[in-house]
Design brief:
The complex is a heterodimer of chains A (about 210) and B (about 150). Chain A is built from 7 helices and 2 strands, in the order αααββαααα. Chain A is mainly α. Chain A has 2 domains: about 1-35; about 35-200, no CATH class. In chain B, strand 1 (about 1-5) and strand 2 form a beta hairpin. The chains are: A mainly alpha (about 210), B alpha+beta (about 150). The interface between A and B is medium-sized, with 24 and 21 residues.
């Protein structure tokens, strides 16, 4: 009986001692985990939208007509890729002329980009259009926002996995170092990834129409 | 480094960044392949790498993987490729500068699609420019070559 009371007492004492300690541990963690505000989320989405809608990304994120686009500071009005190039439903040009006829697949992701203005850009991955469901060219911020977080249209990815994809892809490496006098995508790859993750942490809010 | 061109192995001592075009022309003396624009916009430098059309002005030789075929290796005077024979039959060439690239592009294309429509031909051959404007004859020659290939 005495023994069991002692046991109970030590258990209560243990809980009393442990309680505040646990609360102290939890307090800073809770502060860190406080999600960014919707406003902050939207500001970060805007950063990513500026990347996604930039010609270095959007020119090859085109729709079901499979035309790569030429747009950006060196092109004047946006227009279809010259030389009647259509990537076909294969998105790699297999139906007519492979993208790789002109766009070289580099063996090393660290290779320098092509230096010549107007030459065919190249990357350490076979050149192709992005999947048709990721159509960005000419799309609004809210349209791209809804696509990015829709697993049916983002390759069944969480936003964290989308961010990972941005980090690993050879096209994304090229977009910020495109060579040939082309304007790189805005911000940096790291900023784009951080923006995506902060936007996700804020609940992935999309702007109003 | 070593490269295989028209069935023959060559040893060259060049920088890996050197475009295949200049390795072929300046190092190996294979001059059927032409320099036009140097930026993949005209098609004059088209060769095959493992049978696929490639713009040799764009390909750093260090990135070359596969067997190169130039117009010199496509056919021989005694045994022309169907596209070369059709080129003569239809008297396609005017100045002739672009024809090596045109023929190589057409030969690679017909190997994949031996029954091309006019739209197919336009889709593939629009990236090969002819300043003389021989496009109608190019299209006719490609159709004739396709016929030859199908009946072979």
């Amino acid at each position: 009986m005495i023994r069991s009371r002692l046991t109970l007492a030590s258990l209560v004492l243990g809980l009393l001692l442990a309680g505040p300690a646990q609360a102290q541990d939890a307090a800073p963690a809770a502060a860190e985990a406080a999600p960014p505000s919707t406003e902050e989320g939207l500001a970060n989405w805007q950063v990513f939208y500026e990347v996604a809608s930039h010609p270095r990304c959007a020119n090859c994120h085109t729709g079901p007509d499979n035309w790569p686009m030429w747009s950006g500071p060196s092109y004047g009005e946006p227009r279809r890729h010259g030389m009647n190039i259509n990537a076909g439903d294969s998105r790699v040009g297999a139906e007519a002329l492979m993208c790789s006829t002109c766009h070289v697949t580099l063996s090393d992701a660290g290779s320098e980009p092509d230096p010549l203005p107007h030459a065919a850009p190249r990357a350490a991955t076979p050149w192709m259009l992005a999947p048709v469901e990721t159509e960005w060219f000419g799309k609004s911020s809210v349209e791209i926002c809804n696509q990015i977080k829709d697993p049916a249209r983002n390759g069944e990815r969480t936003i964290e996995e989308v961010a990972e994809h941005v980090g690993e892809g050879a096209f994304q490496t090229w977009a910020w170092n495109p060579g040939g006098g082309r304007e790189p995508a805005p911000h940096s790859k790291t900023q784009a990834i951080d923006a995506l993750l902060t936007w996700a942490a804020a609940g992935a809010p999309c702007p109003e129409e | 480094m070593q490269l295989s061109v028209n069935g023959k192995i060559h040893e060259v001592d060049v920088e890996p960044e050197m475009p295949l075009l200049w390795v072929l022309r300046d190092e190996l003396g294979i001059t059927g392949v032409k320099y036009g624009c140097g930026i993949a916009q005209c098609g004059a430098c088209t060769v095959h790498v493992d049978g696929a059309a490639v713009r040799s002005c764009q390909l750093p030789v260090g990135e070359l993987v596969g067997e190169v075929t130039t117009i010199e290796g496509l056919g021989t005077p005694g045994a022309l490729h169907a596209v070369q024979a059709a080129w003569i039959e239809h008297q396609v060439a005017q100045c002739g500068y672009c024809q090596s690239g045109q023929i190589m592009a057409a030969a690679a294309f017909l190997a994949l699609n031996p029954e091309p429509t006019d739209a197919d031909i336009d889709a593939v051959m629009s990236a090969n420019l002819c300043r003389c404007g021989t496009y109608p004859r190019i299209r006719e020659a490609i159709k004739a070559a396709a016929q030859t290939i199908r009946s072979a």
